[in-house]
Amino acid sequence: MPLPAADYEFDVFFSYKRHALSIDWTRRVSTLFKFYLSHELNVPEARVFVDEESIELGEPWPEALQRALRRSKCLVCVWSPLYFQSDWCCSEWRSFQAREKMLAEGETARLIAPLKFHDGEHFPQEAQSIQWTDVSKYNSTLSAFWSSARALELEDILKSFSADVAQMVRNAPSFRDNWPVVSGHGLDRPRIELAKL
Protein backbone atom coordinates (compact mmCIF):
# COMPACT_ATOMS: atom_id res chain seq x y z
CA MET A 1 0.00 0.00 0.00
CA PRO A 2 1.50 3.41 -0.96
CA LEU A 3 2.28 5.93 1.74
CA PRO A 4 -0.14 8.86 1.94
CA ALA A 5 1.09 12.08 0.36
CA ALA A 6 2.53 14.66 2.73
CA ASP A 7 0.17 17.41 3.79
CA TYR A 8 -0.02 20.34 6.15
CA GLU A 9 0.24 19.53 9.85
CA PHE A 10 -0.51 23.05 11.05
CA ASP A 11 -2.93 25.79 10.10
CA VAL A 12 -0.61 28.47 11.50
CA PHE A 13 3.04 28.84 12.47
CA PHE A 14 3.15 31.33 15.38
CA SER A 15 6.43 33.27 15.12
CA TYR A 16 7.73 35.53 17.88
CA LYS A 17 10.95 36.72 19.51
CA ARG A 18 11.26 35.13 22.90
CA HIS A 19 12.09 37.52 25.75
CA ALA A 20 11.73 36.96 29.49
CA LEU A 21 9.70 40.17 29.96
CA SER A 22 7.20 39.49 27.16
CA ILE A 23 6.85 35.69 27.26
CA ASP A 24 3.74 35.74 29.48
CA TRP A 25 2.07 38.23 27.11
CA THR A 26 3.02 36.11 24.10
CA ARG A 27 1.69 32.91 25.69
CA ARG A 28 -1.63 34.52 26.53
CA VAL A 29 -2.00 36.08 23.09
CA SER A 30 -1.18 32.81 21.31
CA THR A 31 -3.69 30.95 23.52
CA LEU A 32 -6.47 33.48 22.87
CA PHE A 33 -5.67 33.53 19.16
CA LYS A 34 -5.82 29.72 18.96
CA PHE A 35 -9.14 29.70 20.85
CA TYR A 36 -10.78 32.19 18.48
CA LEU A 37 -9.20 30.66 15.38
CA SER A 38 -10.74 27.31 16.38
CA HIS A 39 -14.15 28.98 16.45
CA GLU A 40 -13.58 30.67 13.09
CA LEU A 41 -12.47 27.40 11.46
CA ASN A 42 -15.27 25.49 13.22
CA VAL A 43 -12.89 22.84 14.58
CA PRO A 44 -12.36 21.52 18.12
CA GLU A 45 -8.81 22.88 18.17
CA ALA A 46 -6.97 24.84 15.50
CA ARG A 47 -3.57 23.41 14.61
CA VAL A 48 -1.19 26.18 15.67
CA PHE A 49 2.55 25.57 15.91
CA VAL A 50 3.99 27.35 18.95
CA ASP A 51 7.53 26.20 19.67
CA GLU A 52 6.99 25.80 23.44
CA GLU A 53 3.95 23.57 22.91
CA SER A 54 4.78 21.75 19.69
CA ILE A 55 8.34 20.47 20.05
CA GLU A 56 8.68 17.24 22.02
CA LEU A 57 11.30 16.72 24.72
CA GLY A 58 14.50 15.44 23.11
CA GLU A 59 13.42 16.38 19.58
CA PRO A 60 16.10 18.31 17.63
CA TRP A 61 14.49 21.75 17.53
CA PRO A 62 16.13 23.22 14.39
CA GLU A 63 14.76 20.32 12.33
CA ALA A 64 11.39 20.54 14.09
CA LEU A 65 11.16 24.26 13.26
CA GLN A 66 12.04 23.67 9.61
CA ARG A 67 9.50 20.87 9.30
CA ALA A 68 6.81 23.00 10.95
CA LEU A 69 7.58 25.92 8.62
CA ARG A 70 7.06 23.71 5.56
CA ARG A 71 3.99 22.08 7.01
CA SER A 72 2.13 25.22 8.13
CA LYS A 73 -0.43 26.95 5.91
CA CYS A 74 0.39 30.49 7.00
CA LEU A 75 2.45 32.58 9.41
CA VAL A 76 1.32 34.75 12.30
CA CYS A 77 4.27 36.85 13.43
CA VAL A 78 4.62 39.18 16.42
CA TRP A 79 6.75 42.02 15.06
CA SER A 80 9.06 44.27 17.04
CA PRO A 81 12.54 45.65 16.33
CA LEU A 82 13.99 42.67 18.24
CA TYR A 83 12.07 40.25 16.00
CA PHE A 84 14.03 41.53 13.01
CA GLN A 85 17.33 41.19 14.89
CA SER A 86 16.75 37.44 15.30
CA ASP A 87 18.09 35.07 12.63
CA TRP A 88 15.43 32.49 13.49
CA CYS A 89 12.55 34.97 13.32
CA CYS A 90 13.81 36.40 10.03
CA SER A 91 14.13 32.88 8.65
CA GLU A 92 10.49 32.16 9.52
CA TRP A 93 9.25 35.40 7.95
CA ARG A 94 11.48 35.11 4.85
CA SER A 95 10.41 31.50 4.32
CA PHE A 96 6.78 32.54 3.95
CA GLN A 97 7.77 35.48 1.75
CA ALA A 98 9.59 33.03 -0.52
CA ARG A 99 6.52 30.77 -0.57
CA GLU A 100 4.30 33.66 -1.67
CA LYS A 101 6.76 34.42 -4.49
CA MET A 102 6.86 30.76 -5.51
CA LEU A 103 3.16 30.62 -6.32
CA ALA A 104 2.30 30.29 -9.98
CA GLU A 105 1.00 33.19 -12.06
CA GLY A 106 -2.63 33.74 -11.22
CA GLU A 107 -2.27 31.80 -7.96
CA THR A 108 -2.17 34.39 -5.22
CA ALA A 109 -2.40 33.97 -1.49
CA ARG A 110 -1.57 36.12 1.48
CA LEU A 111 0.32 33.89 3.88
CA ILE A 112 1.75 36.35 6.45
CA ALA A 113 -0.37 37.95 9.20
CA PRO A 114 1.71 40.31 11.39
CA LEU A 115 0.83 41.61 14.82
CA LYS A 116 2.77 44.81 15.55
CA PHE A 117 3.95 44.42 19.14
CA HIS A 118 6.17 47.49 19.23
CA ASP A 119 7.50 50.31 17.06
CA GLY A 120 7.33 49.87 13.28
CA GLU A 121 9.80 52.61 12.42
CA HIS A 122 12.75 50.22 12.78
CA PHE A 123 11.23 47.39 10.74
CA PRO A 124 12.82 46.49 7.38
CA GLN A 125 11.30 48.41 4.47
CA GLU A 126 9.57 45.25 3.20
CA ALA A 127 7.87 44.77 6.55
CA GLN A 128 6.79 48.41 6.73
CA SER A 129 4.87 47.97 3.48
CA ILE A 130 2.80 45.01 4.76
CA GLN A 131 -0.53 45.61 6.48
CA TRP A 132 -0.35 44.57 10.13
CA THR A 133 -2.71 44.49 13.09
CA ASP A 134 -1.44 46.99 15.66
CA VAL A 135 -1.47 45.65 19.22
CA SER A 136 1.35 47.89 20.44
CA LYS A 137 -0.80 49.83 22.88
CA TYR A 138 -1.75 46.53 24.53
CA ASN A 139 1.74 45.14 25.08
CA SER A 140 2.44 44.96 28.78
CA THR A 141 4.92 43.13 30.95
CA LEU A 142 2.62 43.32 33.99
CA SER A 143 0.30 40.45 34.86
CA ALA A 144 -2.27 43.01 36.14
CA PHE A 145 -2.82 44.00 32.50
CA TRP A 146 -4.89 40.86 31.97
CA SER A 147 -7.49 42.09 34.47
CA SER A 148 -7.81 45.50 32.86
CA ALA A 149 -10.28 47.01 30.38
CA ARG A 150 -7.41 47.21 27.86
CA ALA A 151 -7.13 43.40 27.94
CA LEU A 152 -10.79 43.23 26.87
CA GLU A 153 -9.99 45.57 23.97
CA LEU A 154 -7.07 43.36 22.97
CA GLU A 155 -9.32 40.30 23.05
CA ASP A 156 -11.75 42.00 20.65
CA ILE A 157 -8.85 42.79 18.31
CA LEU A 158 -7.68 39.17 18.46
CA LYS A 159 -11.20 37.93 17.62
CA SER A 160 -11.21 40.04 14.46
CA PHE A 161 -7.61 39.09 13.66
CA SER A 162 -8.50 35.39 14.04
CA ALA A 163 -11.31 35.78 11.50
CA ASP A 164 -8.84 37.28 9.00
CA VAL A 165 -6.32 34.50 9.62
CA ALA A 166 -9.03 31.84 9.25
CA GLN A 167 -9.72 33.21 5.77
CA MET A 168 -5.98 33.02 5.05
CA VAL A 169 -5.96 29.37 6.20
CA ARG A 170 -8.93 28.51 3.99
CA ASN A 171 -7.29 30.18 0.96
CA ALA A 172 -3.83 28.64 1.47
CA PRO A 173 -2.36 26.90 -1.57
CA SER A 174 -2.17 23.11 -1.67
CA PHE A 175 0.77 21.59 0.18
CA ARG A 176 4.06 21.21 -1.68
CA ASP A 177 7.06 19.22 -0.50
CA ASN A 178 9.39 21.90 -1.81
CA TRP A 179 8.14 24.88 0.19
CA PRO A 180 11.34 26.83 0.89
CA VAL A 181 12.97 27.35 4.26
CA VAL A 182 15.15 30.45 4.01
CA SER A 183 18.13 31.04 6.26
CA GLY A 184 17.92 34.17 8.38
CA HIS A 185 21.71 34.51 8.54
CA GLY A 186 23.24 37.45 6.73
CA LEU A 187 19.97 39.24 5.99
CA ASP A 188 19.97 43.00 5.83
CA ARG A 189 18.45 44.31 9.01
CA PRO A 190 17.73 47.84 10.03
CA ARG A 191 20.24 49.22 12.47
CA ILE A 192 18.82 51.14 15.36
CA GLU A 193 20.88 54.28 15.90
CA LEU A 194 21.02 55.56 19.44
CA ALA A 195 21.30 59.25 20.15
CA LYS A 196 24.67 60.39 21.38
CA LEU A 197 24.79 61.72 24.91
What descriptors fit this protein?
alpha/beta, globular, five-stranded parallel beta sheet, 38% helix, single chain, 12% strand, Rossmann fold, disordered C terminus, 197 residues, 5 strands
How is this structure best described in words?
With 197 residues, this protein is α/β, with parallel strands linked by helices. It has a single domain, classed as Toll/interleukin-1 receptor homology (TIR) domain (Rossmann fold), CATH 3.40.50. It is built from 6 helices and 5 strands, in the order βαβααβαβαβα. The chain has a 5-stranded parallel β-sheet, sandwiched between helices. Mean pLDDT is 86; it is low at 189-197.
- Helix count? 6
Helix content: 25-40%
- Residue runs with pLDDT of under 50 for 5 or more positions: 189-197
What is the CA–CA distance across the termini? 71 Å
The gyration radius over C-alpha positions equals 17 Å
| Beta-strand percent range | 5-15%
Tell me how many strands there are.
5
CATH superfamily: Toll/interleukin-1 receptor homology (TIR) domain
Which CATH C-level class is it? Alpha Beta
Which term fits the overall shape?
globular
SSE order: EHEHHEHEHEH
Largest sheet: 5 strands, parallel
What's the CATH architecture name?
3-Layer(aba) Sandwich
Write the layout of secondary structure elements.
Blueprint: E1 10-15, H1 23-41, E2 48-49, H2 51-54, H3 61-70, E3 72-79, H4 87-102, E4 112-116, H5 125-128, E5 133-134, H6 149-170
Helix pairs in contact: 1-6
